[in-house]
Amino acid sequence: MDLISSLTDSFRSLFHDEPRLFCSPGRVNLIGEHTDYNEGFVLPAAIDKAIFLAIGPRSDNKLHIVAHDLGKTYQGALEQLEKTDTWADYLLGVLAQLKQAGHSFGGLNCLFGGTIPMGSGLSSSAALENAVGFAVNELYGLGLSRIDLVKLSQRAENEFVGAKVGVMDMFASMMSKAGHVIKLDCRSLDYTYAPIQMEGIRIVLCDSRVKHSLVSSEYNTRRAECEAGVRLLQAFYPSISSLRDVTMAMLDEHVKTANPHLYRRCAYVVQENQRLLDGVAALESGNVAAFGQYMYGSHEGLSRWYEVSCPELDILVDIARQQPGVLGARMMGGGFGGCTINLVQEDALSAFSEHITKEYFARTGKDTYLHTCKIQDGTKELN
Ligand code: GAF
Q1: CATH number of the domain at 201-373, please?
Q2: Share of the chain above pLDDT 70, in %
Q3: Residue 60: exposed, middle, or buried by beta-carbon count in 10 A (0-12, 13-18, 19+)?
Q4: Is 129 near ligand 1, meaning CB less than 6 Å away?
Q5: CATH of domain 2-196
Q6: Is 36 marked as binding a ligand?
Q7: Can you tell me the ipTM of this complex?
Q8: Which of 1, 68, 277, 376 is deepest in the core (most CB within 10 A)?
């Protein structure tokens, strides 16, 4: 039985009611990593791996939530939305934010499952947050726009879950359009949909099988380092407010000698923003090979200057780079594990898959899991 039928059946037998069904996808990001919280640019898209949510209103103010894949249940009440330090916080956080914004809604029965591997850097948490916000908005006619829901998910994660993530993941999952990547300006939230003109080229994810933890201190440390770099420069340029406003010349003059560690962190971000802009120009002119080189540059920066990679991700990129028919590869997402994203020529796909699986095992003793992605629409209700 497929996942949707199984969620529907379980919902019926648990709650004796007919659910409404929602789907919220995970995401990839072609380039522009750790730039979102620096008010820079990102180039993400939603993929064909998603969270599926079966949900219905209750006549009281209780919450009955079931994580189908984990075999776990949360029961509580809307009046008491307290942090649990479990998976339930992603849902409770969204409900808490809705309440805080003054929206009125009743109790809920929900059951969710999914196809996004957890801890693989494909944003299962943002997908879950979006699914709940979107569903409650529909169920209770709250009148929130998609952008409102994106901001709500981000606040839930920042304030309730306690992960100081940027806006990219929820934006990609909510706003994506099949066959397009989103060029998003994370300062203004202005965005454009760029058609992916990559004839004969596939987006392939290679899972390092190293689980990353987003709430890990390293992510918040990188944010703090970027902010420290900005503060240092504000003494010379009072008008700057984020690394988005900073140039390499500013860093060279005022940070390089004063604080070489901060220099490397900030220089990575400034250069990654530029790589994204140059990369988009390359893609627009159909030069995927040039785009692929920017991806390798991105990985190099993430690994050596920003130091958010790990040996397994470096090995995956190294293997991909030497393989014919691979145009670009890099680690993706927060880092310290998760997946690499690879652009692979269709006719080289099966040799790539065979080689990287064998070679990765030989070099790490781990199996990699490959997924060839399709770019999908964002969060939606299923009929
Ligand atoms: C994680 C975060 F959730 C995003 O906001 C982003 O910062 C990303 O890491 C790195 O680009 O996915």
Answers
A1: 3.30.70.890
A2: 98
A3: exposed
A4: no
A5: 3.30.230.10
A6: yes
A7: 0.99
A8: 376
